[in-house]
Protein 1
Amino acid sequence: MGIKVVGIRFKKAGKIYYFDPGDIALKKEDGAIVETARGLEFGLVAIGPREVEESEIVAPLKKVIRKATDQDVRQLVANKEKEQSAYQIGLEKIAAHNLPMKLVGVEQTFDGNKIIFYFTADGRIDFRELVKALAAVFRTRIELRQIGVRDEAKMIGGLGCCGRELCCSVWLSDFASVSIRMAKEQNLSLNPAKISGICGRLMCCLKYENESYERAKEDFPHSGSIVDTPDGEGKVIGTNIFKNTVSVELKETKIVQEYQRADITAKEKKVKSCGGCKKDCPTQATQAGEETI
């Protein structure tokens, strides 16, 4: 038996959290007031009411307080205006305290019980006096939260090198791990300026096609491996999964030739025994053989 839930998103491209809708009729894109760890919050229904397995729920499942009213929407607009004012005041206070930090954004909880200032900095910042100064102005709870450069790009938004809006600010709710190996796997230029986003980190889109490249390359010999070709033995220096070809440097002539994958065979290298292993150890020496690629 599943549990009835509704998925609520609080920010554009933000994470979706499950809540108990109870008897409240909600549909996608409806506004809703829910109780969170930060207090009452306004969110939009991203996933309509449905049943999910209990294992997908993070207990305790909080309830939806009510469907958003016109007054709630007006309150949300007023909060946004206060956030803009708070941002300017935050900039002034940071400058007055001469703190090496960059204010990125300001967020006020729906019920007005807390104002959160998001900032970036190169190291740890002692902002205790700044918090006191801000609390004296706003007369409410103040939280300063340090974020990374990827989160900064997500909050501010912008255009990527593709000419489209940043994925992280439009639809990407979670940052996936991206490595330089992915760029190598896709034969991309390793020039940091060409594979880095506006945040200065490796572009998130490097991960999108990486799995497809890895699967496609499983049937190709690795770069540097020795293969037999119609023109003799050579060393693999590159592959092209789109043309289904392998570039080989011939051993005798040192000329680089391109061959269809089916026209070459890879030589299995001998593996030295590590000594003292069991008889069926995979690192024992094997007979050299040929494998059709």
Protein 2
Amino acid sequence: MSTVADSAVETADASVLDGLVTDYLRVLANERGASAHTLRAYERELRSFAGYIGQQTGKQQTPAGIEHTHIRAYLGTLYERGLSKASAARALAAIRSWFKWLARVGQVDQNVARLVATPKLPKHLPRVPSIEQMNRVVDSVGEDAASWPARDKAIVELLYGCGMRNAELTGLNVEDVHWANEAILVRGKGQKQRYVPLGDMAAQALRAYLAERSALLAAAGPRGPKTPALFLNLYLRGLNKTGSQARLTTRSVGRIVKRIAVLRGLSAEVHPHTLRHAFGTHLLAEGADLRAIQELLGHERLSTTQRYTQLTTAQLEQVYDKTHPRAK
């Protein structure tokens, strides 16, 4: 039995919609500076939707013939396949963005995707390790929990000490570390750049790793030093491939963080973004200004940063409920 994604592949060559998806992805990449991760996600969602429409109404269907009922029915197929409301919401967001562009270039009169209600998602706050737990994790990265202890300790130090996103970390180059200014140049979403302070502990871990990095590249021969990537995979896989540069992947960073966290007694749900949440939450708990945290995290809107206020409030309520005599 073919899936929606399969049908999208089958109709890719002949579908009118698929060509417009390609055009939109080009706009995202060239004009809006979307990251590779964003492009992959949008392509996956839009190819799937275009395949579904082609299957239902024909390969030569134009955007003008798509009604909001088609989009709603497509979301229904996602639920039937067992996808969550969050997955359906992501798909709808991609379709809305595509239709907004289609309206701007005159392919449709209006964005019919706006007529489809966003699936209601359960509101939950991320579970954030305590300051003591994070200190225990960062201070105890050793051979029992890491394949390359010096590198993995530097990774954890930067994720928690600088509040970086996973993709921001793996995208770092050696030249982005500005030792004289004790700062790191970070390239965030939409190619936006910001400088984040490099703390003493993170700097110490980074220097130790860089020494081992240099030794590894020197042992690999004259081709080794050509890679600008800061964090490398242990066996320098892909060193000669264009665009790879032996750069560590976000998936590998996720595995590294999870292994270290679990071995140090934290939840298996811990991932690199958990450390970013911990960075913001702990700064706020220690009295940092919300707008300063916004700048450090690279949030475009203050409302995004305010989620950390909600998180801290929730933690305070838990403490109150457990300890105050009138709360029992």
Protein 3
Amino acid sequence: MKKVLVTGAAGFIGFHLCKSLVTNGEKVVGIDNLNDYYDVTLKTDRLKQLEAEENFKFIKADLAEKDKIAELFAEENFDMAVNLAAQAGVRYSLINPHAYINSNINGFLNILEGCRHNKVKHLVFASSSSVYGANTKMPFSVHHNVDHPVSLYAATKKANELMAHTYSSLYNIPCTGLRFFTVYGPWGRPDMALFLFTKAILEGNHIDVFNYGRMQRDFTYIDDVIKGVVRIMNKVPQSNPEWSSDNPDSATSYSPYKLYNIGSNNPVELMKFIEVLEDCLGRKAKKNLLPIQPGDVPATFADVDDLMRDVGFKPSTSIEDGIKRFVDWYKVYYKIN
């Protein structure tokens, strides 16, 4: 039995990961600050499910609380750490930029320091497909240069990758970064399109459709994401003996460091996504067609060759199955006939 720290345990991905780990017999300590970026009730309801599990312990804490995080690492003696806590959302970073520095930069530094001083055997951390920024070469590969972010959120995630590499290089900490591509499914985030659209359509309200519906996203179902994360947790990165400073590969290193895309490898146009949702709800959406917003990118498309090669996994849930499962959960959770 391993002892695993999961930050952001009351969040969407964190909740599902904790549930999977305790089901598989791991001992999990989850931390979360339960902030009000979105409905705290959803977070506490996720937590209630986790706290019913014998192998789960919850600690309310903010990653930016340096001393508290240091104490937690020293007391618990984790085998692994999975950092999923972050101030999320591209559009919110235009409104409250300081929240992103406090959580995603200062908070992540405290996690790195905890791993450094307590000999954590593997740090897995959430990055984002947003790091691809202004890139247009598709599919997005972890071996591509990602030096042109178009949102502060993306810049903080790119910074996390650089910070993790620094600690891997200096202190030989095995670090794996995961670039998630538009994760959706039951217990999802209310600030994301599927949740917003479902609520609005059921209430008879208009939905905002940016880039006039021509946006493409590599929507990735939550169960697929968790399977990928668990497999990667069990594959501790090694140094790449073929890494060359003359032609540096950003996805690997001379130190124990690796990056992976976690995406479906199957981009879907936003209008198609809405049509599938309309079919599942049995209702038509009223659409406000709008231009693309600052910080958004027109398309995402994940190259998952490295994921398939290294851990033998590729997400496979269709958009039709995934959206249906979300709608079924939504109706039960919100008691909608």
Protein 4
Amino acid sequence: MKRISLIVFMLILLPAVAFGASVVSPSLNITLPPVNNPKTVAESIKLLVILTVLALAPSILIMMTSFTRIIIVLAILRQALGTQQMPPNQILIGIALFLTIFIMTPQINAIYKQAYLPLERNQIGLEDAYYRAVKPLKAFMLKQTRQKDLALFLRIAHKKNPKNPQELSMGIVVPAFLISELKTAFEIGFIIYIPFLIIDMIVSSILMSMGMMMLPPIMISLPFKLLIFILADGWNLVVMSLFKSFMR
């Protein structure tokens, strides 16, 4: 009924606007009653925190999880195969997203049990919940981050090396983690790219020796690259390599 009423209202309003008729808009005043219950205030703050986390979820996904490494490796693999836009970007992002969730499951469970549930039960405050939620993510990032990258950002920030890596702030750990992830992703992509590059070079040499220089080598090499990739069970190997790269 609400949707039907809204449609009828729009049908009445649009002709008046089209012919320049004056439309009197009703005034609307929204007032919130004062809240004196601390529990209600706490629930409102929790809701605000949850909405903030949801708004920052894409940034958290890219900067603090395994998503960056996975999507870069998959993009390099597609370029090495030479299939242009196949698989599409939506498919690659979907694969990277679900692989990220699979890899980050221990951290997600730790955050849920150690931070979210106590906060939901009013056993801890927001500050304690934040530190408990950051701890498993920081441990994951430090495990994948090179000491050289951490030292770089410590030097830029003019800070001393802490005795315990867990004492590092997220402002140091996150950019160092991103740089390390980019380096590792390009290393894996380079290793994946070599076999397909060799196939392109062989096909190009054969075509030049046969005098078929006007024929694009990609037209001949693409079926061979796809065939070799399928016979070698390439997707299984790539996914397994990505998982092993996070188990070090």
